[in-house]
Amino acid sequence: MATPCRIRRLLVLLAAVAVAASHPAHEFCAAAGGGGGGAGGCGGGGDGTRILIKGGTMVNAHRAEEADVYIEDGVVVAVRPNIPVGDDNVKVIDATGKYVMPGGIDPHTHLEMEFMGTVTIDDFYSGHAAALAGGTTMHIDFVIPVNGNLTAGLESYKHKAEKSAMDYGFHMAITKWNDEVSREMEVMVKEHGINSFKFFMAYKGSLMVTDDLLLQGLQKCKSLGALAMVHAENGDAVAEGQQRMIDLGITGPEGHALSRPPVLEGEATSRAIRLAKFVNTPLYVVHVMSTDAMEEIAKAKREGQRVIGEPVVSGLVLDDSWLWDPDFATASKYVMSPPIREAGHNKALQAALSSGILQEDSQWRKW
User: What is the per-residue pLDDT across 138-192, written as a single tens digit (0 to 9) for each?
Assistant: First the structure.
């Protein structure tokens, strides 16, 4: 997320992504207050509130075309070829030979997250600066409750986000279950606009919820019309795998991947999908890192179940060879959960993303 994408031609990235499809007052960027009426070009706004990006290749989800983009007060109000300029008060950016794209939205981040004695390396300022440099203009972070309390967690994250430099939203993690958590989930949806809740099937002894608690959480999400999300790894088996590695004296970064193989991600993904089917509620599986998990999602989608699978860039382009680097400082940079898999998984995940089996793409966290 910290490095701008470099492709054949320079990307011009728009911070404003909402396109007003019908905005007749600005469709031709008429000069404001001039004597020539509405037949001129873009006018007024010498304070930089009006911007015209000319001559680029405009790329949206549905097509790419040669077009100009006119922005006023941070909102895209016209996208069409050859928008005229009426005076010198509009900032004109020449995008000839460049792509013009909406800013990206990262649906899964962990900024300034406190976890098991560590804190993620980027906060809401440095993370935002890196994101903006790479063309991401909005993200959704995960609020971690304070001792299971959702309201306290939200207040903590609001405070962390006071130094933000771009748009953001929140998911909410659920790390324990009782009547108070159930009540607070309703408050989050109805009063704070948070309508997605993440359940950890991993991290035994820390964030992990058991199947009975996950089932209750899925039922609550259904009743609220909220989206249930899961980190899908078998936490009990991972704990066993970790102990095996310790017993064998394998304590380097490579032991992390060996302790939580793809089969444990696939098993947990399958279990979560089946529980969601039992409750009849949609499911979002975060950071899909293996063919094992991807195939469970593909099977569920073929059967008509509402399941969203989210890959991450590291899982799409890297393999686990980095974890075996003899230099600990290098290898440790590639530790994440679920881990980066051996070569072959990445290509399969790329194909799944291309074909629509997987539907989101996240830069994920910065540790």
Answer: 999 999 999 999 999 999 999 999 999 999 999 999 999 999 999 999 999 999 9
DSSP-based three-state secondary structure for 327: coil
| Phi, psi torsion values for 304, nearest 5 degrees | 90, 10
Element (H, E) at 279: helix 262-279
Q: What is the pLDDT of residues 299-328, one digit of tens each?
A: 999 999 999 999 999 999 999 999 999 999
Domain ranges of the chain: 11-102, 104-355
Q: Which fold has domain 104-355?
A: TIM Barrel (3.20.20)
CA distance from start to end of the chain: 12
Q: What is the DSSP string of 328-343?
A: HHHHGGG--SSPPPPT
Q: The tokens 């933000």 sit on which residue?
A: 164
Looking at the chain, how many residues does it have? Answer: 367
Residue 258 near residue 248 (C-beta atoms within 8 A): no
Phi and psi, residue 216, nearest 5°: -65, -40
* Superfamily the domain 11-102 falls into: Urease, subunit C, domain 1 (2.30.40.10)
